[in-house]
Amino acid sequence: MEKVNRRTTLKLMGMGVALLAAGGRGLAQQTPTADQLVKGKNPKMIVLSQRPVVMETPYDLLVSNPERTPKEILYIRNNVDLPGYNTVEGANLEGWKVEVSGLVDKPFTFEAKELLSLPQHEVTMVLQCSGNGRTLYNPRPSGNPWKRGGMGNVTFRGVRLKDLLAAKGVKLGEKAYYITAHASRQGNAPEFVRSVPIHALENALLALSMNGEPLPAVHGGPVRLVFPGYFGVNNVKWVEKIEFTEGENTTTEQVPRYRVPTIPNAAIPFLPQEPGKTYPYTLQNSRPNWLVTLNSFIFAPLEGQTVEGPYVRVEGVAFNDGIVPIVSVEVSTNGGRTWHQAQLERQEKSFGWLRWRTTVYLRSGEHEIMARAWDAAGRSQPLDGNIAWNERGYEYSGVMRVKFTVA
Amino acid sequence: MRKPLWILTIAAASLGGYLALSQFTLPEGPGQEVVLAKCQACHDIGFVARERLSRERWDAIINEMVIRGLQVTPEERATILDYLATYLGTEPPPAPPPIQAAAPKTGAQVYANCQGCHGPQGEGNPPAFPPLKGHVENLLKAEGGREYLLLAVLYGVQGEVQIMGQNYTGIMPGFAWLSDDELALVLNHLAAWGAPQGFKPFTPEEVKAARAKALAPEEVLKLRQGLKRP
User: Fold this and answer.
1) Quick one: which of A155, A273, A134 has its CA closest to A209?
2) Are the Cβ atoms of B68 and A84 closer than 8 angstroms?
3) Fewer beta carbons under 10 A from the terminal one: N or C of chain B?
């Protein structure tokens, strides 16, 4: 009797699973796949929105490219779409013009193709949506339901903005405290404007290529103004105007969106909120999602995997804003009671992610592993990521935990 | 022993239903049509449908959208806020009204999805959004125009088009998430503004067959460019 019942249960569970799977397929049929929306994207990408285009990299695809994230699987978070730019092919450089104005002694406009004759620089950097990890907050904040696939590690190549200014003999005004970049509005696109502090000028790059190929149109080609060490939103795609300004711009992209509560000029990265409460965002009582928060991700083992034991290889990546080096990544297999250091791929500071790995000794059974990074400024990650809860769910950096089984 | 099995099956089935419906479908309720019309002029309805927010947060979000170009009368704003706070709020929405047997959907109701951009009477809003009245009739007269129209609504169109002497460069999104019935209804609603002699109404079966094609918006544009107009 017992046996029959268990079998029946399994059968019914199987039916449930089949039903869910059918539901998933039904849904996939109704909504276009990633490759239909953006030519050249991997059809396995998770479409979070068709308009504007938002798609997440499935975690297993992300981790299977631990060096660099190929264009086919790089996440997309468009705030505006340009008609005809939904492709991973490059966009036409011919006729693309960019205005440089604001607090400069000689405002000018340049042709994007002029950039080809200036010295080229390359930077490998993490591009990460500041909403990455949003679904790990509780209660659920508003916004695209990112898991952990709203990020990638890519190599941009192009001309440094400061080199362009020098080549044009242009000097900044005394009160040029911010760089304010505007995206193209062709095809009646709504405006998209972002400001970053003038500090970002040091590494700012007018990118023309990504991963050795023309910059994909959907990722901002022909020209994207990238700021290594800054969250994705600041790296303005299809840039058509660069202003040097005394203040941050005040469009919704700068406030109230893409900000976290803080106390101005106080040394705390964010002002903790009571989860679920609202906050009256102003330029004064909050800060923009600028510098990438220190974070680490476990690439192996994966959640729910069964691996061979007792020696288990644990690996992943870690990154910060590139201002100081990451000095250690620690892993714990006992819920954070003890930690031991993983080996790091390199010691220098960098805008790209660095890989780390270690081997742990684990008996057969179920385990949970945690990883956390430290950098030379003494920054680390909260054990409980929810401490940073904010109503739009930005900048999650809680310690990652992975449950898996050792055979 | 049997009860838990039933619960499990029902739970699985309703979860399946939830997954299939939640992403793009707004719950029925007063104000649903205004929300469909206003919000979809700029973005996927999914941005709205998947949220569960307090009235205060919805109120703030409407303000944000007004800054970003949303145009609403004070009455429309109040209707939208009531709808969002009630049906997409932090509390479960009120129980749906008892099933009304005699209230089939109409094409005009489905057209709520379109009118935010194309206008209540298909008059359009140049230079951003092309008209449908007259334009759809022209398409239906062209060889292959009927199929193109269906595919354009299903998958969207992207790229430069010329319509009644005006250039349009915007983005027409696809509405593949509407049901076959709803798509047939809305297409026939468009055709009611003008269609050639002998026009046969679109059928859900025809929509279903078109789903097998899975085109990208740029491919739909190519079909448009290949149309032989009278």
Assistant:
1) A155
2) no
3) C
The whole-model pTM stands at 0.88
Distance from CA of A83 to the nearest CA of B (A): 6
**In chain B, which residue's Cα lies nearest the Cα of A8?**
B5
Contact A396, A132 (CB under 8 A): yes
Q: Which pLDDT does position B74 carry in this prediction? A: 97
Task: Summarize pLDDT for A309-349 with one digit per residue, the tens.
Answer: 999 999 999 999 999 999 999 999 999 999 999 999 999 99
Contact B104, B68 (CB under 8 A): no
Neighboring chain A residues of B71 at a CB cutoff of 8 Å: none
Q: What is the pLDDT of residues A33-71, one digit of tens each?
A: 899 899 999 999 999 998 999 999 999 999 999 999 999
A254 in contact with B at a CB cutoff of 8 Å? no
Interface membership of B60 toward A (CB under 8 Å): yes
Whether the ω angle into residue A256 lies within 30 degrees of 0, i.e. cis, is yes
Under the banding of pLDDT at 50, 70 and 90, the label for residue B94 is: confident
Q: What is the pLDDT of residues B165-193, one digit of tens each?
A: 899 987 888 898 889 999 999 999 999 99
Distances in whole angstroms, Cα of residue A161 to Cα of each of A49, A150, A192, A372, B43: 32, 27, 20, 34, 33
| Gap from A279 CA to chain B (nearest CA, Å) | 10
* Whole-angstrom distance, CA of residue A189 vs CA of residue A2: 64
pLDDT at A4 over 50: no
* Chain A interface mutation, best of B129, B158, B171, highest count of A Cβ atoms under 10 Å: B171
Q: What distance in Å separates residue A58's CA from the closest CA in chain B?
A: 18
Residues of chain A with Cβ-Cβ distance to B9 below 8 Å are 12, 15-16
Q: Which residues contact B88 (CB under 8 A, 6 or more apart)?
A: B26, B27, B48, B49, B51, B52, B53, B58
Out of A9, A190, A278, name the one closest to residue B68 (CB).
A190
Q: Could you tell me the two tokens for A307?
A: 């691996």
